[in-house]
Design a protein that fits this description.
The protein is α/β, with parallel strands linked by helices. Helices cover about 30% and strands about 15% of the residues. The chain has an eight-stranded mixed sheet, with helices on both faces. Strand 5, helix 4 and strand 6 form a beta-alpha-beta unit. Helix 2 crosses helix 4. The longest helix is centred in the middle third of the chain and has 15 residues. About 50% of the residues are buried.
Length: about 280
């Protein structure tokens, strides 16, 4: 691994509980990337540390779109860094996940300062961000660093074929739905559809990944692909917790729309799932 630069001063932990601070992360051989820091550990405490990816079909979305889920993660006791990763078509695969992995390596070096000695690290993301979180988890496994305690996938966007029943129902069988269009911009060329980092849901090797939490809505366009991925992870021996939330209306849109509660009536349930997943995660190794 190449050496990492000294972190930007703005990346220090937030000054007050519940505060949200915009930071810039200096990455080796890349432009700095913007991020937003949520939550603060109490003095002497150790808390989960999460790298979060917002939704937006790979081509849109920003830190404001990610705040609903990031706030729920922070409310469950974590310190969260939500990443403003580059978007397609200007930055198609693999640029967003390479930036994501570099940010994860940076965060690992900051883990004691941000989350305490022995802090466990997690990845999280909704919709397209769920794809990126799953891809970065594969990269961390294959590169044998950094160690992850878990990945949290909410309505993950994992199937570029856009052929599941839940997606067809949500899109009205429209062939040029926004998810299909987003995939086309992100993958850029047909050859990328076979790469496991581009399409984690089709990866042939899922062993030795971190424990996984998958949450989808009952009428969620991403419901079927999320549940299919959870099943395949379980078959590969990965501890998986999966839930279809009947009260999760308008998912995945409600997860990242500014001004939304993020989860409507199921917000408390989602946050409780986060708490339980954090508590059950194995210690770092």
């Amino acid at each position: 691994m190449s050496s990492r630069p000294t972190p930007h001063p703005a990346a220090a932990p937030v000054a007050a509980p519940g505060a949200e601070t915009d930071i810039r992360i200096e990455l080796p051989d890349r432009e700095p990337v913007a991020a937003r820091l949520y939550g603060q550990r109490a003095r002497g405490a150790t808390v989960p540390l999460v790298l979060h990816f917002h939704g937006g079909t790979f081509v849109c979305g920003d830190l404001d779109n990610g705040r609903n889920v990031a706030r729920l993660l922070a409310g469950a006791g974590a310190v969260v860094v939500s990443l403003d990763y580059p978007l397609a078509p200007k930055a198609p695969f693999p640029e967003p996940i390479e930036v994501g992995y570099a940010a994860l390596e940076w965060l690992y070096k900051q883990r004691v300062k941000m989350a305490g000695k022995g802090a466990r690290m997690f990845l999280a993301g909704e919709e397209a961000g769920g794809n990126l979180a799953a891809a970065v988890a594969l990269m961390a496994r294959d590169r044998a660093h950094p160690p992850l305690a878990g990945q949290i996938l909410l309505s993950p966007m994992l199937d570029p074929c856009a052929g599941t029943a839940s997606l067809r129902k949500a899109s009205g069988d429209t062939p040029n739905c926004r998810w299909a269009s987003g995939w086309q911009e992100y993958l850029a060329c047909p050859m990328n559809t076979t790469h496991p980092y581009a399409v984690p849901g089709a990866s042939l090797r899922l062993a030795q990944l971190a424990p996984t939490l998958v949450l989808v809505g009952q009428d969620d366009a991403m419901r079927d692909e999320g549940m299919n991925f959870a099943r395949r992870l379980s078959e590969a021996g990965i501890p998986v917790t999966r839930h279809v939330l009947p009260g999760a209306d308008n998912w995945p849109d409600a997860l990242y729309e500014p001004g939304s509660s993020g989860c409507a009536a199921c917000e408390a349930t989602v946050q409780q799932h986060f708490r339980e997943f954090f508590s059950a995660a194995p210690p770092p190794h």
